[in-house]
Amino acid sequence: MLDDHAKTSATPLQIATHMRDLEAQIKTCQLCRLAKTRTNAVPGEGNFRAEVMFIGEGPGYHEDKQGRPFVGAAGQFLNELLAIAGLSRETCFIANVVKCRPPNNRDPLPDEIAACAPYLEQQIALIKPKVIVTLGRYSMSKFFPGERISQIHGTARVVDGLLCVAMYHPAAGLHQASLADVIRSDFRKLPVFIEQARKMLAPPPEVVEERVVEAEAAREFVVHDVETAAVLEPLPTPEPPVVVQEASAVYNIEDTIPDAPAAVEPSDVPPTARAAPKPKKAARKKEEYTQLSFLDM
Hints:
The protein is globular, with a radius of gyration of 29 Å. By secondary structure, the protein is α/β, with parallel strands linked by helices.
């Protein structure tokens, strides 16, 4: 939850401190199954006071290895697109909907997105961008629910006081050459959108805080839901190795079996010598272990 500094007029130093604390939480997060397969979490990077924030879908192979967003082939194309819009990595902030790479670059699952949502909302609240650019359908659906990227790419909408622009993911231009020029054309519109956003009033702190609170509530519902309990499933504790002592010599197995002792009748054993029955062990008790709907403004 954000404190008063993050809600209102935090200084650049305070914002940087909050962002570093948030990055540390993300890098050690264990709230979803992606934590078990990641190499590095990818919090995001860029200017903490950026006017424009880009939100992708999730880290890929190279991002997982380096812990940085958009450093693979799609990242190289994004650098070109930023230059077209008169921006750079130093002047904007780049993040993803999920902070850890889904195995084999599969699509992120709804509970994984929900587990990560508070991190993204807190980043938005701290940075206070004037424009949010969604890259791909998963980030688009967060701000444009029910829409199709093929129909609304290159268009903007005001969501909770933020001007949100829907864009194709840069990787789409690499997989479909016909889309590359479409994406370049969409990015040429960004300077106009940024100028429009500068004339808008900033969203009130209450709206920003409400988004964070709703994201945190949705996360709690997911990580404690029975059907998604695997999100919090603890890693199995490895059993201790069995140590087998090697024999120093080889024996005939018959020579190693001692003669059986003579049977002793219970009546011949003194009462004090009789073994007391072992107490039964008590049975161990098992350890018990919106999408936000935004109003168009």
